[in-house]
Specification:
Structural class of chain A: mainly alpha
Order of helices and strands of chain B: HHHHHHHHHHHHHHHHHHHH
Strand content of chain A: under 5%
Low-confidence stretches of chain A: 1-14, 90-94
Number of strands of chain A: 0
Mean pLDDT of chain A: 73
Order of helices and strands of chain A: HHHHHHH
Radius of gyration of chain B: 31 Å
Shape of chain B: elongated
Oligomer: heterodimer
Helix content of chain A: 55-70%
Helix content of chain B: 55-70%
Largest sheet of chain B: none
Structural class of chain B: mainly alpha
Low-confidence stretches of chain B: 1-120, 139-173, 175-202, 204-244, 261-300, 396-479
Number of strands of chain B: 0
Radius of gyration of chain A: 16 Å
Distance between the termini of chain A: 26 Å
Shape of chain A: globular
Mean pLDDT of chain B: 51
Distance between the termini of chain B: 79 Å
Strand content of chain B: under 5%
Chain lengths: 158, 479
Amino acid sequence: MESKSSDENCNNPNSELHPSKLMMASHFLRALFRIQHTTTDSSFAGRSRKIRRAAYASMAYSVGTKRSWSSALLRKLRSRSRLRSPNPRRAKYAALPGKPRVARPQQREMDQAQVLRELVPGGTSMDDCRLLEETTDFVRCLSTQVRLMQAVVDSVSI
Amino acid sequence: MNENNKFGLENSHGDHLSNHSSGVSADWQFNTPAVSAAPPHPSTAASLVPPLTSSPFLSAPMAEAFVPGLWNHRTMSVGGSNIQNSTSAISSIPIGRSIAMSSEGMLLSAPPVIFPPSVPHFPADLGFIERAARFSCLSGGSFMDMNLLRQSQSVAPARKASKVVMETQVQNTELSMTRDKVVSLPAAYGSIDQSQMDTQRDRRSSHISNSESQETNFSEGGQEGNIDSSDVAGNSSPSDLGANKRKRTIQDMEKDQVQRGPQSSSDATKDNTETKHKVEQNSSKHGAKNGKDNSEAAKEGYVHVRARRGQATNSHSLAERVRREKISERMKYLQELVPGCSKVTGKAVMLDEIINYVQSLQRQVEFLSMKLAAVNPQLDLSGERLLAKNLRRSHGSPLSIAGFSQEMSYPQVYPTVNPSDTYRRTMNTRLPTMSGYKEPSMQMHNNPWNEEIVMQMDYDANHPPNAQEINRKLDGFAI
């Protein structure tokens, strides 16, 4: 199952059991189907938000709780889902990773570690060493997810 | 006096070792007794074993590298090769904490070893044990464990060994002796103990306080910068100060124990001066000898971090160096991940690149999700294509696209239901053949189409040969 990501895992002794691409694909596609079938009447923006959340959720779900970033991400998603029902507007404030925020170009030079902490879910309570570990895993999973989504889009759009 | 002679041999050997290998070798001489001493402490070992299982990722290879090294050491074949192997094995250990854990795990597995009657095979493993115990303590282990280990080490008499190796060896042997009192030694050690216990038992009582104080000194000064290693060992946590404080509290506790002894105060001072002197000797001696040996072994891991020549031996700087190396190691991994960063050097630039990459990935996710939301209405009909495409992609090339013809005959876009019907028919024909596949959770029971897709997916995962047939029909557009 890991044939595609095996090459990038071989030269990285840091890599543990990377979630199977198939698992991520199955999670994501199921979520996609669910979104499509259950919320056919929602707006385009709402659907895109749901899909984005489904992407992160499937990514975190396939990794499980082995990584702190996945646990933090799952926690964030679950808290968001709980917030959504009582107050949909509040859900916007709980920022998912990648949500467009105020651009702060100056901060990047000032404190890169802090910026990285904000990017990686659950990174605020980590030391630099662990932050880099989590960033590695997060980048790997994120790139896999992006490739997966790209494949889905490609197959659909053809 | 046989012991002394043997220690002399050991010392020369130790020096020889330290000459052509990193100074870690001396530590490894110390470490072998730890293997012998470890079994007497099943409680401590047991307490340390659970962390072993949860040790970080590098612990496993380190543990494996550990065992041969230690065992080679124990057999005491004069070949420096063995010790070099052990040292090389040690040098390959990047994380000290896991070393401690793995060492403890190995110590658990070490019981069957029967040490030769000659004492010299007990190098300063006890120092290692102490450090390991310290790590466990700092990581939440019980104080009792550390006390046990400390007391075992503390049994060492106030011997004025010319070389620290001797002293540690003696300490180790006596530690093993005293351990009899604390924990019943396994029978394997009986042969070794008898000869030494008689000679050392008389010294034991008088030196218990000394040993306790010595163990504090041992832990503090240590040999060859053990003080730094021990302090560094404690610095597993990010804050070095906090770890140092913890270590000092432990040492304070040790000192409290020491002062319970009759001769605590005087001996403590004497031993303190002694160990300080030893530390100076060690640092100078090993600094000189290890000038060229300052490989990564000198600074890897908590246990064997040692000051390189010309470098500050301050515990803070050593810990800082360990931390920096860990960070640089992880930056290397990230460099491999982030495309186009292989030639980038420097942490700041690298971090910038990483941040950019993460942000770009997140933007891509958002963009693709918008795209998917736009094409969502058509998703239903082409779901099997998505699945097949992803399946084929994840399975790699083995699933070759044997027959495109059927796929290509379909219209490019599936707005109508006809292609889906044909798909459904093909999949329905395949359904009876699917047997024994496992479907973890069917979240879309209401949609038989999705069920088929999901089933096909799992079927594909479980029965690749049949999946080829399916993919043959469905792979046309997956490129």
